[in-house]
Structures are given as C-alpha cells and as structure tokens.
C-alpha cells in the first residue's frame, strides 16, 4: 500500500514582525514557554502566548488582530496558561488563564477593544478551561442546566492541578464597570440549595465577588483535560492518573468514573463522535492519553433516549453504560519506523460531522437526523532516535467504516495503520522539511474542505468507501507563521498523476495502471486484474479510459503535444491510435446515449430516476472530454492532408454537438420537462390547437399573422424567422415526428432537442428557439419560472440574447410596450440576425402599431441593404406622415437601378394614404417630378389628373395645365351631370389662367393636345361568293406531312414523355446503361437480334456499391414513410456526420396498440409467398448472373381474401398497409402456357411465367396490381382500350370462388388456357381514332425515393393525340389483318376502367418472375374473374364497332400514405416501379411497327 502524503499549498505565511518580536522577548526567560492554538469555533482565530504577551492572529492570513500584555502585582509578570474562544452579547473574546505566584486568574478578554473586562481569582493552578453557556436566567435556553446554574449569567468550567472542578459565574449581566487582571474579583464557593442562590448572588455581587459551584473537592490528583459535550449535556474531566469522570449538568451528579486501559497516563484531550443511524442510541467519546507516547481510547456511551430539541439539536438522555470499545497506540508497533520511537506528542484532535438533507424523508415522522459523515482527526509527532526532524502525521478515523468492519477493539493481526480500512494516515514530512526548525504548535483541518472522492461508476467500487478517499485542507500553526496544506485521497492523487503526466512511457503506463487499480478507478471488468496479466497496449487503453471518465486529460493532451512536437518514427502511429480510440469511444457513447434517451421520448415513463440522471451526466462528461481531445488534436496537428483535416474537423464537430445535445437533455430532465409522459405534457399544451387558435377573449392568437394577406408579409412571426434561419434541415426535422408540420412549435421535445445535432447552424439560433419555447411553457402551463429561467445560466447564454428573445416573444404575443422596452434595452444584442429588424417592423406594421415601428426605426437605425428593406422603412415613415424624412431616405438609398422602383413605391403609398397633396408641396427634383407626373397621368383616373393639373398651376406651368385640361375635356362623359358640372368649373378656372398666356401660345398649346384624325374606315357588306366546284384543291403553301416527319414527331413526343414523366434509373457497373439508340441512327432492334422483356428494364437490379451516391439511397431499401426524416446530403459526404442522427422514437402507447394483432393477422403461407421475390436481396458479387434464376413456365395468381368483408368502398390507392384482426385464405389460379406454333416456338421458348399475388386488405384502398400495370406499362396517356369476352374457364372459376367467406378452404389451383395473338402481316383498314380531350386526367406513377403516386393532367390535345396513335400501334395489332378474325382469336390486355370496385379492406399486390429473354410485345393476357372480395368489371371488345373507343378512365383519388411497413412492401413497390415509364422499347422492337406508322400516315 502506497503512503499518502500531504502537499504544501502555500509558503510560510509569516506573522507581522511586531508579533514575532513581542513573542520572542520573553524567550530569554527560562520559565517562559511558547503556546499556541487555533480557536475551536468558527471565528477563524489563532492565539499565541509567551509569558505575559498574548497575540491574536487571523487563522488564514496570519494578520495580527489583537495583542495584550498582562501585568501583575509581583516581581514576575503572570504567564498565560491556556485560552478558549468565547462569545457573549454579540462580542467576541477569549477566556484566558493566567498563572501567578499566589494562584491563577481567569480573565475575559475582549478582542474588540483589546482589554480585559472580567477577572476572577481561582485557587490553584488552572490546567484547563471550558465555557458552558454565555447567557443565563430562567429561560428556555437554560432548561438543560441545573436550577442553580440557571441563576448564573455566563458559566465557565475550570479545573486545577489540585483536582478542583469549578463552575464559575462570569456575571455577564453586570458590565457597568470594567475590571483588569490587577483588579480581579474573589471567588465564593457555595453549596446552598438553589432557592438561596439568587439572594447569595446579589449579596456577593455588591461585594465584588463571583459565585461558583464546586463539583469535586480537591483530591491532590490534578485534572488535565476538560470537555463539555452539548449533545449529552455532560462534562468530561480527565485526570493525571488516567481516570475519567462524566458529570451531568442537569443534575450536577457524577455519572461515570473509571480509569482508562492505558493506565496511569494523563488524559490529554477529548473529542465526541456520533455514528450514523445506530439503533441502540449510542454515541462515542475519544479520550487521548499522552505522556511519552500517545494512545487513543474510544468509549461507547449508551443512552436510553435520543431526541431532537425544538432548536433542531440532537440530545441524549439517560446514560445506561459506558465502556471502552477500541484503543489504538500511535507508536512504532502500529506504525513502523526506521528507528525506535523515543517520544510521541499529540498536536490536536477534532471531530467533523456533516449532515445531509434527505428530501424523500417524511418530516411528519419526526425522525432524529444523524450525521452521514463522522470522522475524528488526530495529528501527532513522532520523534525517533537519531532522526533530525520529527515525523508528523494526520489520522482520519471513520466511525461508520469501523462499524462496517464489525467494530474491532484494535488493529487485527497483520494490520497496520497503512492498511487499516477505517483509519487513514497522511504524512506531513514535506511541511516539516519546509518549516524546519520552527516547531509545530497546532494543526486545524477546515471543516468545509472535507470531501469524499466521487465515484464515476455505479455501483461505486469498494475503494470509494474507505477513509483513504477523503480530501481536505489544513493549516499548520508555527511560532513564526502559518502554512497551508492539502491532503488528497488515493483517487485524487491518481487523477493528479494522470493530469500531470506528460508522456506515455512504459514506466508511466505501468505506474498509472497500478495507481488506477489501487484507487478503484478502473472499469469493473479490470477491477481485479493485475498489471502482469495485461499487455502494455491493454494497460494504456485502460488508462486512457480512466482519464476520459475522470476528466483527467492532462495525460492525453500532454502526449499529443509531445508527439506532434517531436519527429520520431512512432509519433504518427501513436497519434493515429489516439484518434481512432477517441472516435470509437464517441460512437460507443452515442449508442449508449440513444438508449438512455429512448424512454424519455416514447412516453414509457413519467419521471426520471436518479440512475438515469447519473447515466446522462456520465455520457455528457465523456463526450465533453472526448471533444476536448479532438480539439487538442486539431490545434496541435501539423501537415495534415486535406482528407485528414476534413475528417478531424468532422470528428471535432460531431463530438461537440453530441456533447451539447447531452447537456441540454440532462437539463430538461433535471427541470422536469422530460420525460414526455403519456398524459398531458407541458409541450402538448404548447403544441395544442389552442396555441394557434385561442378564443377571442384570450390574450393572443399566434396564427393570426400567418393569415394576413395583402401588402405586408404574411409570415412575419419572430419565431418563424428563427426557424427559417436554420433552413430546410430544421423543417425536415420537425416533419419527422407524427403531427409535425415543419413550423413552430415542434410536435415533440425529441424534435426540439434534435436541433442541437444539426451542423452548420449557429448555436445562438438553437438557444433562441429553445428559450422561445421555454417562455411558451411558462405562459401556457403552471411550470415554475425558477427552473425554466435557469437555462441561460446553465449554458452561459449572453444576457443580450435572452432579452432579445424575450422581446421577440412578447412581440409575437402583441405586448408591444414591454417588447419594445426589451428590444431597445442597452444590454440587448442589437443586430444578431439579418432578418431581425425587417421582421420586427413587419410585425409592428401588421399589428397596426405604426408609432411603435417608427420609434424602433429611429432608435435601431437598421442598415438597408436591399430595395425591399428600403420600401419597408419608407412605409413606416409614410404611415407616420414623415414625408420629408421618407424623401430623404429615398434619395439616400436610391441608385440608378432601383430609383424607378422606389419612386413608384413612394407615389403609390402616398396615394393610398392620401399624402399625395402633401408630397407635391415638397421640392422634388427634376427626375422625381417627371416620374411623379408620369405616375399621376397613368394611374388614379380623373382625380389624379386633376391633382396634376392643380400642381401645374401652382408651379406656373400653364401650358401643360391647358394641354391636360384639353385632354380631359375630350374624354369627359357628358351624361353625368355632376361630372359635367365639375368639368365646367375646371374649364372656367383654366380659361382664366389661360388669359395670362398670349393668344398664339394658348392656341398652340390647345392644338398640340388634340389627337391626330385618321380617315374613317368604310365597312361594306358583300354577299359571300359561291365556289365554282365542290372539289377542294390544295393550296400551294400548305404544309405537307411526310411519313418521315410524322415518325420523327412520334419519337420526339415519346422522348418528351420519357424525360418529363420519370427519369431513367442510374446504371451500375454490373448493369450498364440501357439507353435506346436514336431513331434511324443506329441499327433497328428486332426480336431476332435482341430479345429482352420490356418489363425487365423496370426491374430494380442490385448495385455493388455499399455507399449510395449523393442524393440517392439504396434502391432495395423499403421506402420511408412521409413522417420519417431523410438525412441530409452532407452525411453521405462525411461518414462521421451520421452520428448526428437519433433513432426514430415511437410513442409507447401507439406501439403497443399496433403490436400483436397486426402480425397475427397474416398466415404463414402468405408471408412466405410474398417473400419469394426474384430480386429481393442485392448482391455485390460480380461473378453472379445479372438475370434472375429461371423458373418453370408456370404462372400463378394468388388471391388472399378475408373471412369477413365490410361494404364496398370507392377505389383508392393505398400504401401496402393491412389492418389487424383479419384472417386470410389463399386461392391459386394456375395459367398454363398456350401451345407454341413452329414458327414462333423459338422466340417464345425463353419467356418465363408469372406469379401475381392479389391481397385483399384495407377498406377502400387498392395498390397497383396486375390489372393496372399491364395496360399502364404500354402507354400512359390513352383512352383507347380493347377487352376480350369472358372465357368459359373464367365463368367456372368465378363460380368456384363464390363460396362462404368464413369457410376454411385449402389451397386450390384453377387451370386457365391462354392464347397468344398472332403477328398480323396484312395492313388493316383505316380506323378512325378519336383524340383525347385536353382535360382528360391521366395517372402517372412515380415511386422513386418513396414519392407518392400523383395525378397529372395532359393539357395539350396534340400531345394526347400522338400518344393515342402510339398506343394504337402497340395494343391493336389485329387491325392489320381483318381477314384473320374468323380463324384466330385475338387476346389483348385488360384495362382497369371506371367500374373497378373493391371491398373496403382490399389491397392488390403483384409479384413478377421475369426472364431476360421474355418477348416484350407478345405477353399473355391474364384475365381475372370476379372474386367475392375483389370485384372487377372489365369491358371487352366485341369487334362489332372497332372505330368506337372505350370511355376514358376516370381520375383516381390520391393515394393515401400511411407510412407503415408490410411484409409484401418490396413486391408492391416493384409493381409501382413497373409503371413509372412508358415502354419505348416496344415501339422499336415491334416487327410491324414501321408498317403501322405508314398506315397511320396514309
């Protein structure tokens, strides 16, 4: 066990020279002995005495406070024997014992006036003095004293060398006359009854004598120690023969008298100690015997009762027994030294107790509190033979640990003070060496400095309970000064070693690991692992973990600085090791933090237990320390590559952001805002609808400003400006949780606190948003403001930012005056954000506070950097009728680019506010006048023109006025009598003004204003000419549409649909781009040269890339719900930033409601079949085939229907979600391939079968299945549809499926024969194609990136017509050979029409098994019969009237996005992907395509 040693924290603080000289004058006298002690109370004093000289100094600084030299009547002056601090009547002093030749004098010394105020002569030589009380009289405070003592005012106990035990009355009630040591009063010993004490005391006081009670008559054995114990109301007296007496001050009787086990050794001192929660009402008294050696004796005092007084003090009554339970010799046997001990001297002893408040303890139970910490501290010196300086020690005895060690009576065999579990010893050799040869007089341990090392793990290791974990400060009193020192426990010493270590050498690693092991600072995994069992790297890892856990980063930062400064071969490797180790620690800590925070956000708990707070604090401390390491690496790094520097910057940023996030979460937990309970939380009040729509009688309506429309900005809430400053990242974050709109307030506290994980956002904006919400919390709830207001102090937020946010919050809540006072406060940050002034002015103008806005504008003087800001300031000035200031502002901020706009804005606002007359009175510039005249002439009608005319007259511009009046005269409506009268008056006025002009000038002005007269147009009606013939001839300039031009137009339109609808998927290295060659540029693609399925192009292929490119995500990942948060693109650039995401939080109540029945509603067969997808799992192996594995040529359609179906609902597109509590059954329809003709067998041999799963689930919802995809994949924009008549097999299958819904049916298969249409070779007759209308709705599917299916409308009639022609080419091949109708049955693909109707709980899923060699334009048409659950009414083509197209498809309702998962989700998503592009390859690969184009042109 390593020795504990004290560390000197200050140099020798010497006393003033006058004090040293005064104490040294009497050293020449051999009888004079220097004495000194610290006072016991909290006065913080120390006294020193040598002979008659008394010096009182400050116990911390050594400053001289008081001094006095006592005088005597004899030849030799008196000497000071002892002193005790004493306070009375708000005065501080000392009880001083003087020794004279005739006896002793007890003096009361007043420090305030440095004089003796009371003096009493005591027989014999006083050896010890102890004050009992400083008051008296028959009051409640003296009830614990004997009735005789209650008549005394101030009682002091005195013992002498003759064995006297006296209780002296200090007569503090009579301070009329001051006494000195030369005028000491006599002492009168009384033994009368208490009834006679008042009379005797009055009588003796008149005679100048003091009364005293004698407890013990002199026996000749001197008393050496004295101690009053307030808790037991006992006076302990020790004698020189080793006996001990206990006197009860209530009865003045001796309760105990016995000799200590140390024998006839003088009792030197006492100290009292109380354990924690001893049920036997026991307390303990230490008795120290000291002669040549020092022995400690612990006496157990057992009482019958332990109670708490009204004053709060603990009080024991009824002593039952007293016995010695423990003894300890402070000699060489217990503390081995190099040489034999010759002398041991006790320096001091004291007890320190600390009471801890228990908030969970019920006060009504009236429990008596006991100290949680109770230690007795002893200091002693050991002088060994041949040793120069004595060895000095401080011992700390923890009585609670002595209880834990089962209360041994002494050290056990093999134990020493170095290894004692309840007594710790510190060595003070460093103090002695520094102060030698000055002797130590006393040592005082400061009570407030005593602390125990805090454990960093839970539960704490055993080492943290031992007394070796205590830390405390002490002061040593010497004859010349003071020395301060500190004693640290094993844990603090180890941490200090780690902080001061500057390198990671082998010795440092080995020593550091040993220290950490002994101190209990290692993790529980290494608690018992010795250094020999670990490698050096494992020991270093343990030391680094301990340094980070305990915030002792000096070792790590010192090593980083050393390795970066030196150019050693291993320095780079070491730095790399530190970097990777720290980052791994950050990742692990972040995962632990997410696990801790999950219950805080999912409504699973309503309170935070202390263990959770401790774990949060631990994680925050770790992250803060790791952030410090990255900051040190960043500041000390040299010659980094660009990639390395970027990675280090990201790691530093991420660690600091997560640390700040943990701090905020911890604060929210401590203030009670977290966790979010399942009931009505504080945030739910803020997020409720009442927050945005309060009643009219309420104070505010926060949504009022958002509804404003017109001239002012509709979005001028201050909080909206804060949110907008953070950008789209914050909006997406607040849309992540359920109910989030992207606007304030956030739906949950999870979304609010996650803003601290957003990088590239100013921290002040984050704090401002949180402060704004906390103000709402205080406003909308009864949450105490004290805890919420502590947020700025906890995070060192500037007061200027706090006042600014408070002002903005008040402005949003229409408290204009208080808001303005805060915004204009000198301590408020004036221009923290660029949008600040504009939003404030906008809000004030919206709320009609024009005067307040003007005051804000005058005081703040916001900078105007844009035209919009200048217009806003102009509006404020004009609404307050400050025209001159507005015009000056306009001239100051106008330039060549915005002058026209600003002037027009000025004129329009003036006209709107009725300020145009006042504006025209101002001196305008030439350009301003021109624009003003142009504005008045062009706007406002007659009123503005008349105003302009008056302005002309005022400016003596008569010619323009006459011209304007003449123009108005020509445009006047003569029918309106009022207007006619007004015109007459105006003409009269202008005629009078016109007389001042010469006649020629007036005539020229009038003629110039007349408009030019154009010859009138003569319209003549003629009869319509009759044509000479009925044959229309083509004109020479008619555009001729050639065959090549038409084909080019078709291909152009196809390209536009391809590019405009959905972009092509990106190609991967394994699957190169399948871009089609341009028309007539490359070789035409035929089925013999390239056989590919047209659906294969739409199948999602696996990509070998492990990290998706920027802006994309893995294609096979299930689509996220609309409420899920897509990570920012920057995360793809920096992998470190991925840690700045928190896991999705699902409320516990909703999760429990959705669990269980949802998954139990699926049968194992349907789950297994839905998972048999050809491309379900991506692969990165380049050696595998890019095509799906071949399957038998068998098609199967699976219908999964429910046992109970509700009523039918309208057709809706769903998002693959099925409700719970429904069982489903499976029916298979098996499609056999048709017979293959010899000429087509080769081309069709490679085609594979299909398996389609149709799942009936949600009410009124239908996902895109087979019936919709087959028609839609050919063409998107068409209404031309053809359908076949039902086959006999269809009718049989329909009858077979019409069975009771609740009947359990096994899996069955229905065989259906398919017929493939023949390829027509003869050109069919012309078919009239009816073009689609311009407003025909067409469904365009898009599922990239999890987008919803939307409806798009084709507005161009020409584009729809071209698309219809393309559709006709693809789906109507039978028109080329009408003669083959009788010989060959034509089967076309069905289309989903308007009559499609589903049961309410219905969903359609499709699974495709495609082969790369499948024929694209000869797919078997699959017809599904009507099911009891899925009713599809399909129109068939009868062939009677081929020219009549079918009815157009009605618009389909928008697809509802539920955001929940489903086992068949990937399969359904593939079906959506099949519909996202028109099949252009079919047009290129069709054999008869060019013939059809030629036919259409003709």
What is the gist of this entry?
By secondary structure, the chain is of the alpha+beta class.
Describe this structure in words.
By secondary structure, this protein is α+β, with helices and mostly antiparallel strands. Among the domains are: 553-669, Ferritin (Up-down Bundle), CATH 1.20.1260; 680-825 and 838-849, no CATH class; 1164-1175 and 1190-1497, no CATH class. Helix 22 runs antiparallel to helix 23 (850-860). The chain is elongated and about 165 Å long. Residues 1-484 form the ELYS beta-propeller domain. Residues 1434-1443 have a biased composition (Acidic residues). Residues 1410-1421 have a biased composition (Basic and acidic residues).
Poorly predicted regions: 689-710, 1061-1132, 1156-1283, 1299-1465, 1467-1487
Global geometry: elongated
Describe the main β-sheet briefly: 10 strands, mixed
| Overall residue-averaged pLDDT value | 74
Structural class: alpha+beta
Count of helical stretches: 44
% residues in beta strands: 15-25%
Distance between the termini: 109 Å
How many whole angstroms does the radius of gyration measure? 51 Å
Q: Share of helix among residues?
A: 25-40%
């Amino acid at each position: 066990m390593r020795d504990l040693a004290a560390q000197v924290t200050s140099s020798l603080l010497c006393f003033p020279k006058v004090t040293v000289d005064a104490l040294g004058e009497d050293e020449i006298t051999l009888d004079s002995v220097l004495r000194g002690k610290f006072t016991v109370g909290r006065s913080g004093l120390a006294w020193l005495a040598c002979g008659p000289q008394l010096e009182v100094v400050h116990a911390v600084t050594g400053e001289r406070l008081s001094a006095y030299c006592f005088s005597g009547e004899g030849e030799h002056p008196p000497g000071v024997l002892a002193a005790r601090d004493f306070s009375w009547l708000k005065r501080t002093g000392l009880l001083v014992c003087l020794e004279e030749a005739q006896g002793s004098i007890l003096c009361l010394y007043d420090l305030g006036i440095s004089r003796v105020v009371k003096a009493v002569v005591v027989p014999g030589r006083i050896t010890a003095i102890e004050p009992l009380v400083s008051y008296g009289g028959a009051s409640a405070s003296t009830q614990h004293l004997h009735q005789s003592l209650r008549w005394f005012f101030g009682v002091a106990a005195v013992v002498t060398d003759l064995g006297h035990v006296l209780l002296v009355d200090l007569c503090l009630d009579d301070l009329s006359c001051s006494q000195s040591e030369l005028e000491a009063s006599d002492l009168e010993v009384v033994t009368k009854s208490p009834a006679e004490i008042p009379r005797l005391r009055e009588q003796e006081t008149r005679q100048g004598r003091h009364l005293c009670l004698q407890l013990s008559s002199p026996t000749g054995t001197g008393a050496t120690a004295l101690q009053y114990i307030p808790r037991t109301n006992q006076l302990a007296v020790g004698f020189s023969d080793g006996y001990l007496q206990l006197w009860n001050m209530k009865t003045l009787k001796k309760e105990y008298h016995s000799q200590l086990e140390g024998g006839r050794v003088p009792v030197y001192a006492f100290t009292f100690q109380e354990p924690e929660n001893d049920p036997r009402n026991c307390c303990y008294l230490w008795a120290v015997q000291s002669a040549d050696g020092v022995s400690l004796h612990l006496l157990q005092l057992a009482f019958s009762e332990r109670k708490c007084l009204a004053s709060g003090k603990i009080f024991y009554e009824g002593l039952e027994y007293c016995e010695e339970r423990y003894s300890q010799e402070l000699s060489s046997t217990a503390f081995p030294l190099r040489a034999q001990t010759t002398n041991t001297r006790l320096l001091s002893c004291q007890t320190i107790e600390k009471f801890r408040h228990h908030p969970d303890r019920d006060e009504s139970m009236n429990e008596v509190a006991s100290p949680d910490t109770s230690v007795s501290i002893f200091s002693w010196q050991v002088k060994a033979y041949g040793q120069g300086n004595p060895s000095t020690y401080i011992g700390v005895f923890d009585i609670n640990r002595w209880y834990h060690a089962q209360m041994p009576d002494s050290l056990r065999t093999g134990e020493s003070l170095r290894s004692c579990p309840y007594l710790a010893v510190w060595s003070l050799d460093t103090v002695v060496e520094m102060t030698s040869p000055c002797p130590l007089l006393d040592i005082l341990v400061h009570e407030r400095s005593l602390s125990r090392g805090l454990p960093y793990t839970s539960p704490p290791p055993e080492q943290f309970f031992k007394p070796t974990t205590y830390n405390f400060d002490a002061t040593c009193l010497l004859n010349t000064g003071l020395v301060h020192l500190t004693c640290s426990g094993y844990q603090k010493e180890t941490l200090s070693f780690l902080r001061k270590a500057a390198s990671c050498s082998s010795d440092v690693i080995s020593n550091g690991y040993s220290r950490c092991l002994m101190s209990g600072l290692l993790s529980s995994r290494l608690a018992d692992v010795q250094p020999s069992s670990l490698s050096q790297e494992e020991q270093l890892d343990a030391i680094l973990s301990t340094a980070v856990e305990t915030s002792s980063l000096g070792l790590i930062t010192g090593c980083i600085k050393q390795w970066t400064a030196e150019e050693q071969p291993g320095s780079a490797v070491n730095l790399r090791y530190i970097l990777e180790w720290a980052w791994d620690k950050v990742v692990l800590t972040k995962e632990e933090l997410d696990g801790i925070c999950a219950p805080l956000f999912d409504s699973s708990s309503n309170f935070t237990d202390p263990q959770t707070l401790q774990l949060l604090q631990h994680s925050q401390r770790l992250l803060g320390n790791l952030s410090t390491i990255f900051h040190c690496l960043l500041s000390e790094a040299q010659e980094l590559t660009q990639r390395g520097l970027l990675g280090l910057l990201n790691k530093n940023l991420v660690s600091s952001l997560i640390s700040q996030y943990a701090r905020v979460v911890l604060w929210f937990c401590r203030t009670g805002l977290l966790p979010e309970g399942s009931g009505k939380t504080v945030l739910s009040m803020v997020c409720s609808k009442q927050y945005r729509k309060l009643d009219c009688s309420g104070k505010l309506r926060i949504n009022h400003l958002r509804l404003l429309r017109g001239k002012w900005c509709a979005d001028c809430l201050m909080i909206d400006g804060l949110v907008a400053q953070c950008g789209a990242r914050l909006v997406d974050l607040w849309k992540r949780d359920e109910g989030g709109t992207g606007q304030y307030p956030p739906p949950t506290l999870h979304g609010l606190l996650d803003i601290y994980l957003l990088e590239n956002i100013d921290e002040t904006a984050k704090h401002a948003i949180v402060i704004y919400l906390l103000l709402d919390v205080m406003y909308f709830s009864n949450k105490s403001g004290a805890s919420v207001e502590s947020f700025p102090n906890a995070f060192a937020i500037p007061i200027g930012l706090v006042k600014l946010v408070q002002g903005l919050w008040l402005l949003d809540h229409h408290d204009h005056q208080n808001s303005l006072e805060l915004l204009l406060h000198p301590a408020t940050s004036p221009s923290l954000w660029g949008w600040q002034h504009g939003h404030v002015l906008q809000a004030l103008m919206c709320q009609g506070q024009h005067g307040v806005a003007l005051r804000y504008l005058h005081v703040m003087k916001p900078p105007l950097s844009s035209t919009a800001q200048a217009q806003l300031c102009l509006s404020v000035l004009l609404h307050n009728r400050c025209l001159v200031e507005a015009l000056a502002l306009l001239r100051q901020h106008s330039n060549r680019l915005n002058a026209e706009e600003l002037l027009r804005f000025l004129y329009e606002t003036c006209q709107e506010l009725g300020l145009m007359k006042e504006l025209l009175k101002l001196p305008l510039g030439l350009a301003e006048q021109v624009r003003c005249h142009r504005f008045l002439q062009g706007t406002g009608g007659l009123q503005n023109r008349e105003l302009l005319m008056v302005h002309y007259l005022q400016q003596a511009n008569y010619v323009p006025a006459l011209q304007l009046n003449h123009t108005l005269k020509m445009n006047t409506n003569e029918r309106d009598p009022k207007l006619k009268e007004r015109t007459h008056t105006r003409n009269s006025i202008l005629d009078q003004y016109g007389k001042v002009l010469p006649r020629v000038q007036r005539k020229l002005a009038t003629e110039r204003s007349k408009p030019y007269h154009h010859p009138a147009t003569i319209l003549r009606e003629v009869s319509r000419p009759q044509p000479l013939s009925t044959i229309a001839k083509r004109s020479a300039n008619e555009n001729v549409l050639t065959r090549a031009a038409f084909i080019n137009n078709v291909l152009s339109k196809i390209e536009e649909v391809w590019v405009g609808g959905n972009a092509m998927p990106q190609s991967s290295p394994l699957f190169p781009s399948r871009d089609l060659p341009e028309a007539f540029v490359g070789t035409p693609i035929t089925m013999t040269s390239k056989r590919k399925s047209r659906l294969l192009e739409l199948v999602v292929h696996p990509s070998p890339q492990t990290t998706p490119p920027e802006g994309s995500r893995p294609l096979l990942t299930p689509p996220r719900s609309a409420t899920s948060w897509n990570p920012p693109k920057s995360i793809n650039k920096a992998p470190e930033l991925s840690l700045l995401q928190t896991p999705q939080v699902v409320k516990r109540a909703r999760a429990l409601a959705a669990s269980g029945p949802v998954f139990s509603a699926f049968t194992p067969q349907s789950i297994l079949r839905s998972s048999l997808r050809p491309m379900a799992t991506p692969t990165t192996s380049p050696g595998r085939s890019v095509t799906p594995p071949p399957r038998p040529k068998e098609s199967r359609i699976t219908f999964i229907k429910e046992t109970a179906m509700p009523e039918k609902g309208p057709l809706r597109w769903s998002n693959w979600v099925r409700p719970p509590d429904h069982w489903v059954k499976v029916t298979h329809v098996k499609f056999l391939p048709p017979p293959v003709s010899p000429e087509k067998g080769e081309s069709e041999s490679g085609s594979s079968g299909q398996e389609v799963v149709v799942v009936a689930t949600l009410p009124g919802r239908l996902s895109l299945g087979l019936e919709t995809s087959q028609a839609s994949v050919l063409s998107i924009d068409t209404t031309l549809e053809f359908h076949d008549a039902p086959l006999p097999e269809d009718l049989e299958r329909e009858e077979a499926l019409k069975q009771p819904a609740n009947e359990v049916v096994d899996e069955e298969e229905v065989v259906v024969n398919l017929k493939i249409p023949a390829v027509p070779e003869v050109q069919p007759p012309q078919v009239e194609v009816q073009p689609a209308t311009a407003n025909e709705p067409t469904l365009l599917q898009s599922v990239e990136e999890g987008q919803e299916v939307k409806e798009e409308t084709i507005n161009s009639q020409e584009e729809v017509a071209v698309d219809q022609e393309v559709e006709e080419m693809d789906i109507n091949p039978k028109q080329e050979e009408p003669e083959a109708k009788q010989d060959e049955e034509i089967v076309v693909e069905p289309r989903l029409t308007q009559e499609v109707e589903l049961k309410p709980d219905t969903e359609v899923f499709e699974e495709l098994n495609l082969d790369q060699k499948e024929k694209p334009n000869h797919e078997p048409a699959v017809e599904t019969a009507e099911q009891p659950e899925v009713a599809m009414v399909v129109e068939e083509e009868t062939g009677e009237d081929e020219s009549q197209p079918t009815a157009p498809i009605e618009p389909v309702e928008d697809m509802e996005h539920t955001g929940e998962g489903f086992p068949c989700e990937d399969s359904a998503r593939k079906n959506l992907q099949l519909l996202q592009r028109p099949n252009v390859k079919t047009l290129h690969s069709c054999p008869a395509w060019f013939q059809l184009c030629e036919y259409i042109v003709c």
